[in-house]
Design a protein that fits this description.
This protein is 21% helix and 44% strand. A hairpin with a 2-residue loop joins strand 6 and strand 7. The protein is elongated.
Length: 116
């Protein structure tokens, strides 16, 4: 029985099972975030839809803004460009890029809705 326990420990070490939490922690430390607000003039816009596109794999994530017009996209990959814009009642903001060369842990973009 003792040999079996030792063998299982050796196998788990060789398989790297104990390094998984450490690897996950390192990956979280390398991530970054994009936060900001959607506004019309100086007024925050609640329930605007913010689109975030990963330009590497073309995945799109969305966020519906809070009462203060705020949005957040945590856990973004480093070294990837992201495009972000907002829409509200048929109007939209300009598209902004969060560059993969931008080394900030958290960027803050204000998205201004342009009403027609």
């Amino acid at each position: 029985m003792r040999r079996l326990a030792v063998a299982l420990i050796v196998l788990s070490v060789l398989a790297g099972a104990w390094n998984k939490p450490l690897e996950a922690q390192k990956n979280r430390e390398r991530t970054r975030a994009l936060v900001g607000h959607v506004v019309d003039g100086d007024q925050p816009i609640e329930k605007a839809v913010v689109y975030l596109k990963n330009t590497k794999n073309l995945n799109v994530r969305t966020y519906i803004t809070d009462a203060d017009g705020g949005y957040r996209f945590p856990v973004l990959a480093p070294n990837v460009d992201y495009e972000v814009y907002a829409e509200f009642n048929g109007a939209r903001s300009d598209t902004k890029t969060f560059s993969g060369f931008d080394d900030r842990k958290q960027a803050n973009f204000t998205l201004r809705i342009h009403r027609k």
